Amino acid sequence: MKTILANPHLVGALAGLTSALVAASPFGGMAFLTLLSPFPLMVATLGYGFVAGLSGSAVAIFGIAAFSGVTPAIGIGLLVCLPCVLAGTLGALARPANELGGPDETLVWFPLADILMAICGSAALAFVGLSLMDGLGLELADEVAAALAQSYRQGDVALPEGFEAQLAALLRNMLPIVQPWGWVLVLLSNFYVALQVARRAGLLMRPKDDWPTSLRLPRIALVPFLIALLASFMPGLTGFLAAGVAGAFGAGFAVGGFAMLHQWSRQHSARFFILFGTYLSVLLFAPLLAGFVIAGLFDTKRASPLSPRPVD
Predict the structure, then answer these.
(1) How far is CA 215 from the centre of its chain?
(2) pTM for this entry
(3) 129-173: per-residue pLDDT in tens?
(4) pLDDT band at 95 (very low <50, low <70, confident <90, very high)
(5) Are 190 and 119 in contact, with CB atoms under 8 Å apart?
(6) By the 8 A CB rule, do 259 and 299 touch?
(7) Average pLDDT score over residue span 28-37
(8) How far apart are the first and last CA of the chain?
(9) What phi, psi does 215 have (nearest 5°)?
(10) Is 179 exposed, middle or buried (0-12, 13-18, 19+ CB in 10 A)?
(11) Which of 123, 162, 196, 232 has the fewest CB atoms below 10 angstroms from its CB?
(12) Poorest-confidence range of 100-114, 128-142, 173-187, 264-278?
């Protein structure tokens, strides 16, 4: 066991195999486990570096290709392997503070804001790549609209004429935004837990980030978001793909907005009720998310955690 744990290639291969098995769980009727598929590869990359992430990605991609085909293999490569290797590698990067004009005995770690941008960018790239390769998947919106309309009819609810068609059209417009938005949240959640596990296991020297103050997107992220937001109003494939990119980066700015709320609420004794009420309101009325996106747009920054530099 010690020999395996000392070899980053073997650790990465085991993590990649685990991620592939978890990602394939929908075929066994346990689709919710797919949300955990980035976790093993992120822990391995954070703790054992880029080499482990690369080995794990190769095992995951070739394993899925052997049993499920090329298209699912490309899917796990874009959805899981790319963001895990990016986030894990960047999360473990540090440089001497004196290279930036700081003290000699301090390390500066890669900013959490840039890691969040990498996650948003990889989710956007995955959405664009898979949409071009495997179709837009708009039939899902029609199926959901039909299922909802059928459930209303079974409950003896009187539906206005054309309700199902209007609902399907609404869901088609929401689909390219919701998919990458949701995957950004999945990746970020896995990254957060992977950081804690790798740090507690003694695999990662990165100090604990103060997420409420440092979880923001950098200012440069405004460029792809605003361009994609404008392009999303274009008809056809261009607008569809641009909406997905805007959704991915919009999720990053929304997360920054929520982090601002957490930071602000620290000074209030009723913090629990403020946060609980806010999250409940967003769950009940999703358009409130727009306010958090706007808040995140106006607080872009790059905060880096610091730690003592190891003695050679």
Answers:
(1) 13
(2) 0.90
(3) 988 887 666 666 677 777 777 776 666 666 677 766 777 777 777
(4) confident
(5) no
(6) no
(7) 70
(8) 28
(9) -80, 85
(10) buried
(11) 162
(12) 128-142
- The token pair at 179 is 């998919």
Ramachandran quadrant class, 287 (left: phi over 0; alpha: psi -120 to 50; beta: rest):
alpha
How deeply is 96 buried, as exposed, middle or buried, from its count of CB atoms within 10 A (0-12, 13-18, 19+)? middle
Query: What is the token pair recorded at 108?
Result: 């500066």
pLDDT at 136: 62
Distance CA 123, CA 221 (A): 14
DSSP 248-278: HHHHHHHHHHHHHHHHHHTT-TTHHHHHHHH
In degrees rounded to 5, what are phi and psi of residue 130?
-70, -35
The dihedral of CA 20, 141, 258, 250: what is its sign?
positive
User: Is 80 exceeded by the pLDDT of residue 126?
Assistant: yes
- Of 246, 270, 261, which Cα lies nearest the Cα of 292? 261
Tokens of 252: 């990053």
Tens digit of pLDDT for each residue in 281-296?
999 988 889 999 999 9
AA letter at 275: L
Amino acid residing at 161: E
Only one residue has tokens 């291969």, namely 13
